[in-house]
Fold these 3 entries.
Entry 1:
Amino acid sequence: MPDRRTLESAVALACRAPSLHNSQPWRWVLGAHALTLYSDNDRILPATDPSGRQMVLSCGTALDHLRTALAAQRWSSAIERMPRSPDRQCLATLRFRRLDESSDTEPSDTGARLAAAIARRRTERLPMAAPPEWPSTVTLLQELAEDAGAHLDGIGEDERAALDDVSRRISGEKRADPAYLSELNWWTGHAMFPEGVPADTLPAAGSAVAVEREFPPGRATSETSGEQDHAAILLLSTATDRRLDWLRCGEALSAVLLACTDRGLATCTVTHLTESEDSRAFLRGLTGDGVPQVLIRAGVRTPPGPETPTPRRPLSEVLFREHPESDSR
Ligand SMILES: Cc1cc2nc3c(=O)[nH]c(=O)nc-3n(C[C@H](O)[C@H](O)[C@H](O)COP(=O)(O)O)c2cc1C
């Protein structure tokens, strides 16, 4: 096992992963020979995410962040997903192997760069400029998604107007749903709690992007506020819609976001259009097969916005020891 300091710093980096409304619905338990990831079902958002799909997806992003953080420290992770366990919240068990100094599997520059991208990545909700060199980037992102067990499609510019229309319609429906709204208001727009989405990261009135989820107006503005968004739009889908698909799709989401960050691109995860069968059917119509799970906007943020990261819960609330009394390392 990696020593305690290495594991703690890797788990802290893993918890920089994105999650629905920054709910951080994960719990890590450190045993003598393995680290186990559980979902924290107290952090499910029942009105937005009744099945817990996005909760498991969020945990998948943390799982891939953890693997990436440890790989950069020369540890490879063997991951058992959905292990046999009486606890339904148990999502994955990780066992580690030290990479030999001389082995040809030593971490590449890319591995170190991806780990460094974890701390730089932010969800950017303002309009973006178009990403440069997009065709070669998309090919790389598609390979990363396939490796993680998901499928990535680009949504064409000619579909954008229809996508914006559906987004506005869905936002209108959600505005009329009191349970959804009270959940949204509970989780978003407040000061710097260690969870939830701070107002500083939410678009000010008139700055929002049509394809985005509608949030209460915040304080974020930029030179592009109110302008048309030129971000590329990607859709992550899975073959089926089981908990394992959600977890793996979260891992794919993490891989795609970190690769974009590494290439200097801003990203935004968007999921309100995957929360009803109606809008999921619309998305499926754009890309063909597969179950739509997550949209991603990727582009260039102009000019660079504030670098303050969205807060996270302290490690003491998310990392536990199986046998605390026996751990004196
Ligand atoms: C499953 C999932 C769904 C999300 N849905 C949205 C969304 O619909 N709109 C949005 O702006 N951000 C969305 N996010 C991004 C989170 O709000 C964001 O990760 C969180 O606030 C933490 O901020 P950070 O990503 O800047 O660290 C989602 C993230 C995940 C993992």
Note: The mean pLDDT is 93.
Entry 2:
Amino acid sequence: MTVGPTALLADQLVKAGVACSREVALAPLTTFKIGGPAGALAFPEDTQQVATCVCLANALEVPYLPLGWGSNVLIADEGYPHLVIATRDLDWVRVEGDLVRCGGGLGVSNLANAVAEHGLAGMEKICDVPGSVGGGVYMNAGCDGVTLGDLVTEVTWVKPDGEVVTRPRAAIHMAYRESGFTGTSRIVTEVALRLVSGADRSALAGQMEGVRCERAAKFPLPYPNCGSVFKRIDPTAAEPWVAKDGKGAYSAGYYIERVGLKGKRLGNAQISDQHANFFLNLGGATAADVLALIDLATTQVREQFGIELHPEVNVIDAAGRH
Ligand SMILES: Cc1cc2nc3c(=O)[nH]c(=O)nc-3n(C[C@H](O)[C@H](O)[C@H](O)COP(=O)(O)OP(=O)(O)OC[C@H]3O[C@@H](n4cnc5c(N)ncnc54)[C@H](O)[C@@H]3O)c2cc1C
């Protein structure tokens, strides 16, 4: 029997000391709970092991993708037949005064809790973003006017050739829901953030509790989802609608609701009737169901308003990340 390059890679990674398995279901590793398997799934424990994954994958010409906490991905039903590098074991954190260093796989929420215990302020507004710090840097995740990029001072990543580099924030592009990592094969493994020392710990805990309660009430959380499916609309494209309605003009959900798709169901996927930019897996939804809803919303908003919706969710299939 011929062994394919991805299977060979998995064996080589195990021999190199990296935890790796073949044909592993990816759906449980995502908040959407949708999608087929990875050809191989590795769990490196540190930056060097991530570099080993990249170098061995390159040598065998096996494509690879990083996966953080899977809170902004839609995995295709056929899965990703190559190497998925799961970062969630890069979960250390070290506090040095008002500077905090952590692994790229640490949860944003866990980091927010850890820094609050040291009386460090700055992460309260983004404490409920349900992804990893590395995924948050990739997406420049944010909430209520604060983004991860605002707090970051330095990022370490593994380049596509396997070299490890560290660069200051000033050298890294950050914009609304995109960064210098977006669409590249760079894997964020370590992040440093500067916060504000001397804050009252119980006040920080109270503020974060408030943010979490407010968001729990706002989002249709009981059903698996990926957060916002579409990015905020380009304000220049939406300007006429501000004048007409005076509200919600930059929200994709607003336009999805206006075209009458709030609550629309295809198969077992549904556009939430609570928050139209959240698409739900009602149980057993396929990626094809969700993609059909994305297509429907995009087409109808374009036809009725001339506005282009741009997905925020990262769609992953055999060809890569879109
Ligand atoms: C209920 C809910 C609420 C949400 N609320 C918000 C919100 O308020 N604000 C917001 O911005 N987002 C929000 N999101 C979306 C999501 O949490 C963020 O985009 C988050 O930053 C994704 O991180 P992740 O680790 O889950 O990334 P994944 O979903 O695992 O991956 C997302 C992308 O990042 C890449 N990636 C992951 N890790 C790395 C890494 N270490 N290096 C390089 N690339 C990497 C992946 O390849 C993929 O392309 C929400 C999602 C849910 C489900």
Note: The two ends are 34 Å apart (CA to CA).
Entry 3:
Amino acid sequence: MKIFDEYILPSGVELKNRVLMAPMTNFLSNEDGSVSLKELDYYARRSGGVGAVLTACANVNAQGKGFEGEIGIDRDELIPGLRKLAASIHEQGSKAIIQIYHGGRMCPPHLVPDNDTVSASAIPAEREGAKTPRAMTEDEIEQTIIDFGESTRRAIEAGFDGVEIHGANTYLLQQFFSPHSNRRNDQWGGDVQDRMNFPLAVVESVKKAVTVHADKPFIIGYRLSPEEREQPGITIDDTLQFADVLATQDLDYLHISLSKFEQSSMRDANATTPVIKQIQHRVGHQVPVMGVGSLYTAEQVEQSLETVPLVSLGRELLIDPDWIQKVKSEESVQTKMDPEKKEEVIIPEPMWTNIMSVPNWIPVKE
Ligand SMILES: Cc1cc2nc3c(=O)[nH]c(=O)nc-3n(C[C@H](O)[C@H](O)[C@H](O)COP(=O)(O)O)c2cc1C
């Protein structure tokens, strides 16, 4: 099976197979952002089978905290806990990659200092009750770029094999690339090329930290969402132009965040070509592309690996932490959450209640 083929990333780091655990927020860290014991158990349970575990998003500064119980990577005092997390993933036999992030205008005000949410521009998200954020000053932008570099240094010191820059799912990097949330007319905004400036400066800062601090190959991935529904909003054409530039940045992979691997454009009802195929066709010869989205069975993953070299699995590994091991031994995998197996699959509270109370998010066994 293709799933079990090894893969050498451009940095030289070798993955033992083609499947990664998708980054998933677990609400399990301590209030100060430090790693908790139940979080270590949760990760250990799903590590081992996959080539690499992508952790939940970790905030790079206090203003970027977007979830209760979020893991932090914004202070040196958090490094000992992060070290335990990397070690517990390694002990099971998977590489460990931490996702670094800033939530921007999507942060709940009560989670950030002085309720002061920020973004590229003072434009609220299009959702009920969204607060209008404050446009970041140039100094804050420069500092945030530094914070992504400093977070990368902490990831290296904690023993992670890499970082994934979270440029997807409507958070700060996407907010700068988006014509909806970025209406700036300084060097950080403008046309589609100019709107790449902030994410590219973050990439540069992360790369610099790796050059200065890593003494062995270190993975740098970039996650992006290819489209937005808003008008104006990110289009496939914008994303293909962005992918062209990202493909020249010596990244280890581009992770394309989609809820269904094969989905076509959500802005164009007549579109039929899967977005992932368009991106792979455009830049797949320059940078490895990773797909994701509702791939529950081994057959679906095998089929996806005909298009891209890497895939990540999210909910599948919540439902069945032994997914890879079972596929390897030709056993059938669970594709629906069994509420009676909460303890066996190790999804501690409050994660269990948070994910199970959102209708239709996690497929549930009748
Ligand atoms: C509980 C949960 C938390 C998530 N948190 C994150 C996150 O922190 N960062 C991120 O990039 N995506 C996050 N996602 C999205 C997943 O990485 C993935 O893209 C999505 O679940 C679709 O893949 P799947 O069908 O394999 O679950 C989360 C998804 C779930 C189910």
Note: Residues 22-25, 56-57, 99, 166, 168-169, 223, 257, 259, 292-294, 313-316, 355 surround flavin mononucleotide (CB under 6 Å).
